[in-house]
Amino acid sequence: MSALQIKKGSSKHSAYDLRSHMSDVMERHTLAVLVDNESGVLARVIGLFSGRGYNIDSLTVAEVDHQGHRSRITIVTTGTPQVIEQIKAQLGRMVPVHDVHDLTVEGQAVERELALLKVAGTGEKRVEALRLADIFRAKVVDTSLESFVFEITGTSEKVDALADLMRPLGLVEIARTGVAALSRGAA
Question: Mind telling me which PROSITE patterns this protein's record contains (predicted)?
Answer without folding.
Answer: ACT
